[in-house]
Structure formats: structure tokens, C-alpha cells
């Protein structure tokens, strides 16, 4: 199980997929469609630069990515996204991808996304192991992902279509969103999204009693993860940035987080997660993630937040895995619903 969904702390390393005849054939088909030619990334020029002056070719612009300059058509029509943040960004900006990967969830695409918005998007396999033949068969004119997720597959992906990679995911989600918007030709729309989110966060802060009261409320986010220790989230990750946008306080334990990401504990040390308010989510089977035994333990029940009724179970797919403005706005709504009482 991929316990690292929604994180970028320990990137997986996998060897490049061997080029099969079927994949090569799919690449050849892809090269015939739209702007998805092999000259689409790394500042290689080739067919993309020719597209600027060639008659009947779409206009392009240069996007600065983690892998160098990439020439992208000004208004991509067939977009493939290979991670949850990129899917959130595309949908937030009004772009429906033709294909996307999924995380280790039986529900397919993340549950917080409107079903009518994801209906018809081709499932390209599990996020860390996307189906390259299926990607090529879609004849995309743009692929969005990150180096931390698919850097080892970059040379294959750029043969299919211009591939725009951010360096990582999670904490720099706002900067990544701007890069996604640039690649999608949606900079104006992105500004509206950012401004609306800032106004929304300010409304939530006001609803919580203002900046001073919000700052005086110390909040912890705890994640139970199958196959890993329990995570007390630090200050350098996606959900931490949303809490910061509202101005909520964080307990001292968050300063112990490795690389600012999370401070991992066993069930026997769960009392270190105590705070004024605790939000908790679960990734994987609750028993295997140690959620069941922890929530039934005396240490958990003895925490002040539990005694005060200030503990709230939240959806992992939204709070941890979403990593985008659509998810963040929904989280803001939940923060207000739980804390403005």
C-alpha cells in the first residue's frame, strides 16, 4: 500500500519501464495526434518550436518546469494528470482531464471531487505505476505530474506529450497550482481562484472569533496510516498550510516533526498529540493502521481534547490527499463547522 499519498517526504524509486513493442506502437500513434509529439519537453525545440510558425499548428508558450523549459500549446484540450494535486488543479480551473491516475482507494478518484466532474475521465492506473500504454493511447497534448512522483518516467512521458513537472508535491501546493495554471493557459482563472480562497479563509477566521482567538486555539492533525507509525502533522505540509491560512495555533509537538512534515509515534505515545482540538484521519484498514486500538486506549481517552469533545474524524481523501484549492475550500468549510461553536 502506498502510505505516502499526499506526501513527498520519502519518494519512491522505481526503474524505468522497459519499452515494449506495444508501448512503442502507442507512442507512434500518439505522435500523430495534436501537439503530443516527441519534441514536447526539456527545451528540446523540435516539433514544438516549429509549431509556432507552422501553418495550421497551434500556438505554444514556454513553461519553466522542474525538468527545464517545456513548450506547451496555449490551450491544451487533451490533458492527462498523474497525481491528486494535478487533478484538483485541473478541475478547479475548469479543465476536465481525459485521463488520471488513482490512489490506493477502492472508490477510484478522490471522493471529495464532484462525481459529475470526474465522470468519463479514463483511469490510468495506480498513481505510482501509471499505465504508459493507456496514457499514449489517449493522445494527450499535455501531461501534468511532479518529479518526486514520476521523475524516473520523464523520458518516456515526454515522448508521448509535453510533460510539465513540479519539483515535489504537498507543502508547495500553491506554487504548483500556478505552474499548472500556466501550463493549462489558465492564469487569469487562477488569480480568481486564489483571491476567492483568501477571502474564504478570512471569513473562517472571523467566524472563529478573529485572529487572536484563532491563534490561541492549538490544533493537531493526526493520521493513522496502514503500514506506518501514527503521524502527528508538522507545519510543512499541505494541511498545515490550510490551518495557517486561517491563523490557527499549533502545539509545540509539531516543532519536532522531521523536515517539518510529521512527528511519528506509536500508540503508546499518542498522548503527545494532545491539543485544544484534534482532527484525525485514516489511510488504509483502521485496524492495520492502529486506529482502532488507539482510539480505544486509555491514553487517547485521557487526552484533554477528547475529554472536551474537541476531537473530530475527517476524511483522509479530502484533508490529506486532495492537495489543491477545491479540497482546501472544503476543508475551510469543515473547520468553520467544527470550531465556530
**What are the secondary-structure elements, in order, as H or E?**
HHEEEHEHEHEHHEHHHEEHEEHHHEHH
Order of strands, main sheet, comes to 5-4-3-6-7
Q: Give the overall pLDDT as a whole number.
A: 87
Biggest sheet architecture: 5 strands, parallel
The secondary structure category is: alpha/beta
Report how far apart the termini are: 38 Å
Which strand-content bin applies to the residues? 15-25%
Number of strands: 12
Model regions low in confidence, pLDDT < 50 over at least 5 residues: 10-54
Radius of gyration using CA atoms only:
21 Å
Q: Can you tell me the overall shape? A: globular
- Counting DSSP H or I runs of 4 or more residues, the number of helices is 16
Structure description:
With 341 residues, the protein is α/β, with parallel strands linked by helices. 38% of the residues lie in helices and 17% in strands. The protein contains 16 helices and 12 strands. It has helices spanning 21-31, 46-53, 84-92, 115-118, 132-137, 147-150, 154-160, 173-184, 187-207, 211-215, 238-246, 291-295, 298-301, 304-307, 316-319, 325-339; strands at residues 60-65, 68-73, 79-81, 99-102, 122-126, 142-146, 163-166, 219-225, 230-233, 262-265, 277-283, 311-313. The strands form 3 sheets. It has a 5-stranded parallel β-sheet. A 5-stranded mixed β-sheet has the order 10-9-8-11-12. Strand 4 (99-102), helix 4 and strand 5 form a beta-alpha-beta unit. Helix 3 (84-92) packs across helix 8 (173-184) and helix 9 packs parallel to helix 16 (325-339). The two termini are 38 Å apart. The relative contact order is 0.14. The model is unreliable at 10-54 (pLDDT under 50).
Amino acid at each position: 500500500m502506498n502510505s505516502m499519498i499526499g506526501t513527498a517526504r520519502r519518494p519512491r524509486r522505481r526503474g524505468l519501464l522497459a519499452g515494449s513493442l506495444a508501448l512503442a506502437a502507442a507512442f507512434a500513434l500518439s505522435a500523430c495526434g495534436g501537439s503530443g509529439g516527441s519534441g514536447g519537453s526539456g527545451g528540446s525545440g523540435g516539433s514544438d518550436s516549429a509549431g509556432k510558425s507552422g501553418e495550421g499548428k497551434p500556438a505554444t508558450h514556454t513553461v519553466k518546469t522542474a525538468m527545464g523549459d517545456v513548450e506547451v500549446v496555449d490551450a491544451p484540450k487533451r490533458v492527462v494528470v498523474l497525481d491528486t494535486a494535478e487533478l484538483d488543479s485541473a478541475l478547479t480551473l475548469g479543465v476536465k482531464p481525459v485521463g488520471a491516475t488513482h490512489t490506493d482507494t477502492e472508490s477510484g478518484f478522490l471522493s471529495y471531487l464532484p462525481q459529475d466532474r470526474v465522470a468519463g475521465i479514463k483511469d490510468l492506473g495506480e498513481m505510482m505505476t501509471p499505465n504508459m500504454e493507456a496514457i499514449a493511447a489517449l493522445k494527450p497534448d499535455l501531461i501534468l505530474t511532479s518529479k518526486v512522483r514520476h521523475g524516473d518516467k520523464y523520458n518516456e512521458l515526454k515522448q508521448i506529450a509535453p510533460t510539465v513537472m513540479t519539483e515535489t508535491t504537498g507543502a508547495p501546493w500553491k506554487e504548483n497550482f500556478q505552474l499548472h495554471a500556466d501550463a493549462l493557459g489558465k492564469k487569469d482563472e487562477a488569480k480568481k481562484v486564489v483571491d476567492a480562497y483568501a477571502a474564504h479563509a478570512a471569513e473562517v477566521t472571523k467566524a472563529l472569533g478573529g485572529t487572536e482567538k484563532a491563534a490561541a486555539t492549538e490544533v493537531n492533525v493526526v493520521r493513522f496510516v496502514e503500514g506506518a507509525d501514527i503521524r502527528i502533522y508538522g507545519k510543512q505540509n499541505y494541511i498545515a498550510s490550510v490551518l495557517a491560512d486561517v491563523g490557527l495555533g499549533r502545539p509545540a509537538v509539531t516543532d519536532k516533526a522531521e523536515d517539518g512534515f510529521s512527528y511519528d509515534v506509536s500508540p503508546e505515545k499518542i498522548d503527545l498529540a494532545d491539543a485544544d482540538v484534534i482532527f484525525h484521519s485514516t489511510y488504509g484498514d483502521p485496524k492495520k493502521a492502529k486506529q482502532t486500538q488507539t482510539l480505544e486506549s486509555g491514553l487517547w481517552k485521557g487526552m484533554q481534547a477528547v475529554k472536551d469533545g474537541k476531537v473530530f474524524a475527517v476524511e483522509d481523501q479530502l484533508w490529506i490527499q486532495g492537495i489543491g484549492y477545491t479540497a482546501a475550500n472544503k476543508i475551510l468549510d469543515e473547520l468553520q463547522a467544527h470550531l465556530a461553536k
